[in-house]
Design brief:
Blueprint lengths: L2 E4 L8 E4 L11 E10 L2 H8 L15 E9 L11 E4 L2 E2 L5 H4 L10 E2 L11 E5 L3 E3 L6 H21 L7 E5 L4 H12 L3 E6 L2 H9 L4 E4 L6 H8 L5 E6 L6 H7 E9 L12 H6 L3 E4 L5 H12 L7 E6 L3 H10 L5 E5 L1
Parallel strand pairs: 10-11, 10-13, 11-12, 13-14, 14-15, 16-17
Antiparallel strand pairs: 1-2, 3-4, 3-8, 3-17, 4-5, 5-9, 6-7
Helix pairs in contact: 3-4, 3-9, 6-7
Bound molecules: zinc ion (ZN).
Length: 344
């Protein structure tokens, strides 16, 4: 089968497309899915580049997001038929530990993400536990399902399950173009919040406006965006800050939060380590709330909202699987608003 293989860490040129990778066989409880669309996440770039301690089984197939059709069933799998259209929950869990048993699959002691801790989606077929599948209605495209999966379950879990956002609250999203941020913006609007967005360009801010953002601020605004937001909202600060930028912005996020505010984080595009002023934390009664991915029930909930048309996958570019190197370069350029989808 056709697959994208990584033999060693490095730039996009390290991604090799081959046509003769062996087709994997599903084990008990597993399903083989014929992948029709895969979507990129910044995670794919980090895995490709590598970090201290990362361990991949080479050759490694990257990719967390995919959708497709059921291709073969392993022993003991019921409820699915070959040809069924499916979306794939990208969180891999053991299904047996105390966290899994209580519905927190994303806290599993053997937690993993497709394409990071195990073979990923950038291939013609993939093996996946049957419990990760969700039936995909005919009116939703493979590209939309793939583009939505990781970012929407991550944003839903962060904003709704962990962050507990409520109607009437103000939510500030630091960054406009990334997949999790565009998902967070839509979820905050759907929840009845007033949404502020910080963006690096007028173009990205205009696209955030089109998705429903109420107030837009340029990242490079004179005097700094934190002050600009603070003045816009009447020197009170915002109830919730969504900060997945990390080192470059976290202190401004703490400053921009209102008393009792929550700062939600699921990642750090500018680096993981940051010195924070603890006086802000206790003096303003702040909560810093982290999470990664989401439980399967959150995946089902948010994907059904997508299927109902209440949320939309934002797709910025679509390329064939053969052009995976170019897709990675596009993602790294930061010039694309929304998801990059690979057609398989
Ligand atoms: Zn588990």
């Amino acid at each position: 089968m056709k697959a994208v293989l990584l033999y060693e860490h490095g730039p996009a040129e390290k991604l090799q497309v081959v046509n003769d990778h062996p087709v994997p066989e599903p084990g008990p409880g597993q399903v083989r899915v014929r992948v029709r669309a895969a979507a990129l996440n910044y995670l794919d770039v980090w895995v490709r580049n590598g970090w201290p301690g990362i361990k991949l089984d080479y050759p490694h197939i990257p990719g967390a997001d995919a959708s497709g059709t059921v291709d073969a069933l392993g022993a003991g799998v019921n409820g699915w038929q070959v040809g069924d259209r499916v979306a794939i929950d990208p969180t891999v869990s053991c299904g047996e530990c105390a966290y899994c048993q209580s519905g927190w699959q994303n806290r599993c002691v053997r937690f993993g993400i497709l394409g990071e801790h195990r073979s990923g989606t950038n291939a013609e077929t993939i093996i996946i536990p049957a419990r990760n599948l969700l039936a995909l209605p005919d009116h939703v495209s493979f590209a939309e399902a793939a583009a939505a999966s990781l970012v929407f379950v991550t944003a839903w879990h962060s904003l709704i399950t962990r962050g507990g956002i409520r109607p009437g609250e103000s939510v500030l999203i630091v960054g406009a173009g990334g997949g999790v941020n565009t998902a967070s913006l839509q979820i905050a609007k759907l929840a009845g919040c007033t949404v502020y967005v910080i963006g690096s360009s007028d173009e990205k801010l205009a696209q955030a406006r089109a998705l429903g953002a109420d107030h837009l601020v340029r990242r490079d605004v004179e005097g700094g965006w934190s002050r600009a937001i603070y003045q816009m909202i009447g020197k009170r600060g915002v109830d919730v800050v969504v900060d997945n930028v990390g080192a470059a912005t976290l202190n401004d996020s703490l400053r921009t939060a209102a008393r009792g505010g929550r700062i939600l984080t699921v990642g750090n595009t500018t680096g993981p380590k940051v010195e924070i002023d603890n006086r802000l934390m206790f003096g303003k009664h702040l909560s810093l709330i982290g999470s990664t991915m989401g439980p399967h029930q959150d995946y089902v909930t948010v994907m059904n909202l997508l299927f109902e048309g209440k949320l939309q996958a934002v797709i910025g570019a679509t390329l064939p699987l053969d052009e995976v190197q170019e897709a990675h370069r596009l993602l790294e350029s930061g010039d694309v608003f929304g998801k990059i989808v690979l057609e398989v």
